[in-house]
Write a sequence for this structure.
């Protein structure tokens, strides 16, 4: 959805607490805890000997899911819910690891620190709240008056601020300790500047096994095994599933498009006649639920906020004017320009998506119901095939990667199938019927490969091909040496012509540029910056082939320009390095800790009890 169709930020972090409590109560009353053998105190994770209760994970995940549903204006697919569940799990594990680290380092937070932070360093979400802004900027005086008002206490804001800062202050203290020693020297700054601005123009010849038609060399099983044992980390991979998928599309006809346009024209007439306000119509009718809640408000801003047809129509309006129906990839829009100041427009809109007519949708739904009745949830693999044949549905096999949505042959997401495949489904089992605005989907799990280091048998062909290429590239070295020698005697152009090999001359490149035929940040790029202009290189071996090159021109970075901007460069690089130091530290903290993920065990126990 268009980025600007999201409503202005509210007290999201306060709502998070409210929704958390609601989610927890929903969890407590939903009966989830009553399914033995999973109970309220079952550990979903054990972090350095301390347990994370299953009920806490479910409550946090439910809270995050509700936030996402509010943001999307719809229910979540299984893929989206799986992502949210992972996010909740990592959040809880990370928070527990941080608390353990605070205790280890003696990091504490005082009452006065909380008070000072609440008064003078409001959370980012509050700084974006429209109620606390003046002329589009956060107003500290408004914020402090609000803190002192009875409403702040009545709404629980003060208690929420205390809770927020008791979590945030120790985190910032820890990060400050971790990153405080990071520094970057002038030499490092100059090196980074040169990497981005030293340029080379080179002429080169690349010899590859494909161009020279080298037959794949023999690679023994012993060589494959030796490589595997020495490089097992390369084969630590996410789960992989092969699924068969059929779909019943929700076909939208020209008549459906015309009907959506007519509905929007009718709304426009109601608004123009004064029988209905734009705001009420948007709240009741708009498919953009985010802006619809605010009467279709899209805020104020300049060009570049919207897709081209929408923006063109919006800038053609006069203040107070309604557009004709505007078609974009999202549907038909009715736009109202409320105010214009230069290129800044204050807009509202109503979105009507183009969908099937009631009669078409009914026929599609009936067909989908029949498909579901025949095959959905079945553990008999043949039922899926029979259903596909009966309903004349094309069956396609797709590869699902654990933790990622399934991508169909058209490059678009097939909803929920990936999460289902890795959620405990058995080989040969059919899924429930999934749907989105495009189609209904039914899948069958054909094979499943769990995440982790893959066995040798599964990756031996991949290793063999890799070693064959290495050997094939190595066989080209004598020809490359002969080419380099001939180029030194005559020219690189003459040597290439005599050898029948293509010669390449590219645009200027830096040490960080990816160059077609040379690669990126490899031996060939490095050699180009080490070689004297006009000199012919020795053969340079890369993963793709062997390169012989000549530097035609080199331009060095401007040292005066570097000095002029050095302060800003240092600030940027320091910020980046410190953020990276914290990120690496937290990654290492996680790796060095004992974290037992018990979700798969709980999932299996729940399926068995069900």
């Amino acid at each position: 959805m268009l980025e600007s169709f999201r409503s202005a930020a509210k007290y999201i972090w306060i709502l998070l607490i409210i929704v958390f409590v609601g989610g927890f109560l929903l969890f407590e009353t939903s009966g989830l805890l009553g399914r033995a053998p999973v109970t309220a105190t079952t550990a979903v994770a054990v972090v350095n000997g301390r347990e994370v209760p299953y009920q806490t994970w479910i409550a946090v995940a439910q809270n995050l899911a509700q936030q996402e549903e509010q943001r999307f204006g719809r229910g979540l697919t299984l893929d989206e819910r799986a992502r949210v569940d992972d996010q909740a799990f990592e959040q809880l594990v990370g928070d527990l690891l941080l608390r353990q680290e605070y205790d280890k380092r003696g990091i504490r937070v005082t009452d006065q620190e909380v008070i000072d932070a609440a008064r003078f360093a409001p959370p980012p979400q509050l700084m974006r709240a429209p109620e606390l802004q003046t002329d589009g900027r956060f107003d500290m005086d408004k914020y402090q008056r609000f803190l002192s008002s009875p409403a702040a206490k009545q709404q629980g804001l003060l208690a929420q601020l205390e809770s927020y800062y008791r979590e945030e202050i120790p985190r910032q203290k820890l990060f400050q300790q971790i990153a405080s020693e990071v520094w970057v020297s002038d030499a490092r700054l100059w090196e980074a500047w040169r990497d981005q601005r030293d340029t080379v123009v080179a002429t080169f010849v690349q010899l590859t096994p494909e161009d020279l038609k080298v037959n794949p060399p023999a690679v023994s099983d012993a060589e494959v095994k030796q490589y595997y044992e020495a490089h097992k980390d390369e084969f630590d991979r996410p789960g992989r599933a092969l699924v068969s998928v059929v779909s019943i599309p929700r076909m939208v006809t020209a008549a459906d498009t015309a009907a959506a346009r007519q509905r929007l024209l009718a709304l426009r007439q109601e608004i123009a006649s004064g029988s209905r306000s734009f705001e009420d119509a948007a709240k009741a009718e708009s498919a953009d639920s985010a802006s619809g809640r605010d009467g279709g408000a899209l805020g104020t801003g300049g060009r570049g906020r919207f897709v081209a047809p929408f923006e063109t129509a919006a800038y053609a309006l006069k203040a107070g004017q309604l557009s004709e129906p505007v078609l974009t990839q999202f549907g038909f829009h009715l736009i109202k320009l409320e105010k214009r100041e230069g290129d800044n427009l204050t807009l509202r809109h109503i979105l009507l998506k183009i969908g099937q007519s009631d009669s078409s949708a009914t026929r599609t739904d009936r067909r989908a119901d029949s498909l579901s009745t025949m095959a959905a949830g079945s553990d008999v693999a043949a039922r899926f095939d029979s259903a596909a044949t009966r309903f004349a549905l094309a069956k396609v096999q797709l590869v699902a990667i654990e933790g990622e949505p399934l991508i169909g042959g058209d490059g678009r997401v097939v909803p929920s199938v990936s999460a289902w495949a890795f959620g405990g489904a058995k080989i040969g089992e059919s899924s429930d019927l999934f749907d989105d605005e495009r189609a209904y989907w039914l899948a069958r799990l054909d094979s499943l490969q769990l995440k982790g280091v893959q066995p040798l048998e599964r990756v031996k062909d991949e290793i063999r091909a890799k070693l064959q290429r290495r050997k094939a590239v190595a066989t080209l070295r004598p020809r490359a040496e002969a080419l380099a020698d001939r180029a030194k005697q005559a020219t690189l152009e003459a040597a290439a012509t005599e050898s029948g090999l293509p010669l390449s001359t590219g645009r200027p490149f830096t040490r960080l540029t990816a160059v077609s035929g040379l690669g990126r940040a490899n031996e060939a790029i490095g050699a180009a910056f080490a070689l004297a202009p006009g000199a012919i290189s020795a053969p340079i071996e890369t993963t793709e082939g062997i390169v012989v090159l000549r530097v035609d021109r080199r331009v060095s970075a401007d040292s005066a320009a570097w000095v002029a901007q050095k302060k800003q460069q240092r600030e940027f690089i320091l910020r980046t390095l410190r953020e990276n130091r914290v990120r690496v530290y937290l990654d290492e903290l996680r790796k060095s800790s004992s974290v037992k993920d018990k979700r798969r065990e709980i999932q299996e126990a729940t399926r068995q009890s069900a």
Remarks:
- The chain has four domains: 3-179+596-609, 196-236+459-555, 239-251+358-450, 254-352.
- The longest strand covers residues 331-341.
- Residues 427 and 445 are 5 Å apart (CA to CA).
- Residues 559-592 form the longest helix (34 residues).
